[in-house]
Amino acid sequence: MTLVEPPREVLAHGLGGGADLPLPPELAIAGGTAALVLSFVVLLLAWRTPRYPDPDVAPPTTPARRPAASTEGTRPVPAGLAAVVDSTWFAVTLRVLGLVAFAYVVVAAVLGQDLLTNPVFGVGYVLLWVGIVPASLLFGAAYRAISPVRTLHLLLARVLRVDPDEGTSDYPAAWGYWPAAVALFAFVWLELVYPYSTELGPFRLWFTAHVAVMLLGSAVFGSRWLERADPFEVYSTLVGHLSVWGRDCDGTLVWRSPLHNLAGLRAETGLVAVVAVLLGSTAYDSFRESNPWLRFTQSFDGPLTLLGTGVLLLSVLVVGLTFSAATMATGVEPSSRTSLRTSTATSSATSSATSTSGGVSRRRLPRRFAHSLVPIIVGYMVAHYLTFFVEYGQQTLIQLSDPLSNGANLLGTADWSVNYWFSDHPTVLATIKVLAIVGGHVLGVVAAHDRALRVLPTRHQLTGQLPLLAAMVLYTFGGLYLLFGV
Amino acid sequence: MRILTSLAAAALAAAVLTSCSGDSNDAADSAQDPAGTSSSTAAPTPEPAPATAEAPSAPASSGAPVAPAGTTLTITVAGDSVSPNGERLELAVGEPLTVEIDSDRAGELHVHSKPEQYVNFEAGTSTQELVVERPGLVEMEDHDTGDVVAQIEVR
Hints:
The structure holds 2 protein chains of 2 kinds. Chain A has helices at residues 25-45, 79-86, 88-111, 119-128, 132-139, 142-146, 148-160, 178-192, 200-221, 224-229, 231-240, 258-263, 271-288, 291-298, 304-328, 334-346, 365-369, 374-400, 421-424, 426-455, 461-485; strands at residues 74-76, 245-247, 253-256. Chain A is an all-alpha fold. In chain A, α1 (25-45) packs parallel to α20, α7 packs across α9 (200-221) and α8 (178-192) packs across α11. Chain A is globular. Chain B is an alpha+beta fold. The interface between A and B is large, with 56 and 58 residues.
């Protein structure tokens, strides 16, 4: 029973056992009250004419993801900076960095030991999965710029002398974001449900399959596949819509308000599924650490993995279905009811759903509002993962110096020690968490309000917002409750 | 935009107001944790410190007259069956937790504090003491079964 070997247990809760204290009740209540009150403040006092563009008002004839021309709140990035960002060497440098980091981690995954101190787990579950959020908030669609699978696809295309954007077939528009939703679910299942997620074999298998599917798909459908199927790229691009970085109609690099950027997200089929997986899985992660659930599962004799899969799926479905129901529970224009019938009859996801008056068919409403869940997701991710990211992220940087667990100090970080400032200041931490959740909620409500002004008929604009507002309050209360009650 | 700004200000004010009531926590943090490290009196650090808490060295300080102050957690291990099942405990930062173990096998408890701590135990009864010096929700897990014995709210 000595501990000569580092511990290599299968942790019941994945990486990094230590968790945050529950939110203090007074903070949770204050946060909930603020969210509720601010929701109605937005509803009653905010602007009455839409301020942000809607990329779907004009039928999507081109695959460009640029919002329609509206330059309010947009200013060009200084020419010098734009020149750097747009330069080939900048793009190539990022790609090389991404590929080198990828190769480094592959070496650790293939030649390293099956120990929790192997940095690959921290790289996958912390630096990549959680790190996508801050990186994309700061820099826009950051993962796309460094994505090793995208780089490999570009290299392959160059070797084969084909256009990387063109595959052998067109990407079926009817698939939309569904491949990404499935891939995201596969990842959160590995991370949160699968009991051996921190063993090297399954971890390697998942990422090998991921790289294979991404490369094959992009060979068939071109790089469009990566924009719609790569879970990390889709997640990053989604969160990147909350950054200040954007492109104008003519491709100029611009700064614009995050809400403006967010509204430019294209509403495609499967987008609701993507946001539901992201929000539902984080809620599940909070829930599975709760004391009643822990006690129940530990006395449960049945198939635990199946139970976990079921509850994860249920959690995603609850978000997806409540959101869809809430966005559809509104009056729509009579003309769009007709278009609803026709589009149901043809059951074609690509049929034009935009009526001449700008109204939208009911079944297309969920995806038109899906962007408004992104700030709520980000707020909840910050609240849920802040300490984990900061502290286990440092731990991972330390472990990265010794990828093969042989005492090496390749990067010079092995002697660092983790700074536990956040854990040592629980009140600051709890305050940040509540601010993140309430802030995300308010941005979400504002984004939904603006979209409602655009897509709902005037006489339904106020009442039509109420169900979605209620759903958002439900998510926020649910999030606060999970962080408080755990 | 002005409305947005005032909304943000309102949210900030709400949170700041409530956080004032909790400031005593932070004051306590800094007072109690000058070194910023976590330690354990009886339990070893991850190093293979052989002197660690082998139960015989503190041979069965047997149940009854243990130091009265502080919290006590009684753990019973019978093969693969470990109790309690995820018991919730509250503990102050730096307050010793007395862990009484009655086991029919040797084993190891993982204490997921920051940094982690490990408590080895032998078959028989033993008593050990544990100190967590950093706030958080700390799980105590039996290594062999992976069962979480207790979740300790350390404040």
